[in-house]
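Supplementary Methods. Inverse-folding protocol.

Structures were first reduced to a discrete structure-token string of length 102. This string, shown here, constituted the complete conditioning input.
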């Protein structure tokens, strides 16, 4: 019984030592400065991504209105509005041109 516990502890410690460097780099990611987008990224955003966001906002608005009676019964109309209308609208209209969320 003691051998199994000892083996498990060794495997756990090896796993922790192997995973630790990746965790620290993930936490440090928020401290990196954001580079300004290139002209190509801005053109791609303006010509392709923004129109898709506009369509997503319109379609989300339609689905929100259709699902509103059920959302009101489930008392989650605010959450539905956030997910279906506000988030796509913020992605489309308030995000700086060429900057995509990580």
């Amino acid at each position: 019984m003691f051998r199994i516990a000892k083996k498990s502890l060794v495997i756990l410690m090896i796993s922790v030592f192997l995973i630790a460097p990746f965790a620290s780099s993930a936490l440090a990611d928020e401290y990196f400065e954001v580079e300004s987008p290139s002209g190509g990224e801005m053109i791609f955003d303006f010509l392709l991504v923004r129109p898709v966001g506009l369509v997503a906002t319109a379609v989300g608005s339609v689905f929100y209105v259709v699902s509103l009676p059920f959302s009101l019964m489930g008392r989650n109309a605010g959450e539905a509005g956030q997910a279906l209308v506000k988030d796509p609208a913020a992605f489309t209209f308030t995000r700086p041109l060429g900057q995509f969320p990580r």
